[in-house]
Amino acid sequence: MTATLDIGVQTDYAVRLSGVGKTFGQGRRAVTALDGVDLDVAPGEFVCLLGASGCGKTTVLNLVAGLDAPSAGEIELNTSRPAVMFQEAALMPWLTAARNVELPLRLAGVKRADRRARADELLDLVRLSGVGDKRPHELSGGMRQRVALARALASAVDGDANSLLLMDEPFSALDAITRDVLQSELVRIWRATETAVLFVTHDVREAVRLGQRVVLLSSRPGRVVQEWHVDELNPAAQPAVVDEINARLHEVISSHAG
């Protein structure tokens, strides 16, 4: 079955996956990446999708983003433009930071004055005021990722209460200090924008630090095997959650290897 888009309908979810499966190839060479995935992300919720390499996390994002179609099941979106942020910033090198942020607005037909004002607002939100005229090669890796985040927000956050941001390990290529800073910044920005976030990672600590809910996928084929709700107001409890998730992840990987 293919994805079903319920755009603009007021529901209790930003995106819903029901029995979603994905198989690549045919016949004896077919590879099943996902099998019967059920997952809801509520409006404004921050969900981290966790699992070992090759478990289908990125495939889930690609399906939700509409970059590929599921082989089975349904994907219901309550937003017209889910935005995606990848591991690499993927900025247009010939455009300034501000023009990169403006790009999705330009493609959406937003007037020049309005999109410039919005780009300035978003660059300020990601703490990059004053660098709008810089090109990507003039920025550090962390700053480029901030520009990429602002660009994604320009696409995802348009006043729709069910806006959705898809993030595929966006900080994995950064050094530890920059990654720590951007994780904190992401939480601040998420709270300010109230957009729903589906964040893919293989880092348990990152998932627990960022997410309100952590969803664990099994090794291939990916299935939801367990989920945890994280108490944002009690950081002292997070190490115990990390230990519990690590133990379950190792169990899942060992079971698959066996």
UniProtKB/TrEMBL annotation:
Keyword match Nucleotide-binding: yes
A Gene Ontology molecular function term of the record: ATP binding
Domain of life per record: Bacteria
Alphabetized InterPro entries for the sequence: AAA+_ATPase (IPR003593), ABC_transporter-like_ATP-bd (IPR003439), ABC_transporter-like_CS (IPR017871), ABC_transporter_ATP-bind (IPR050166), P-loop_NTPase (IPR027417)
Residue ranges annotated for the ABC transporter domain, each copy included: 15-244
SMART domains the UniProt entry points to: AAA
UniProt keyword list: ATP-binding, Nucleotide-binding, Transport
Protein name (Swiss-Prot/TrEMBL): NitT/TauT family transport system ATP-binding protein
Organism in which the protein naturally occurs: Actinophytocola oryzae
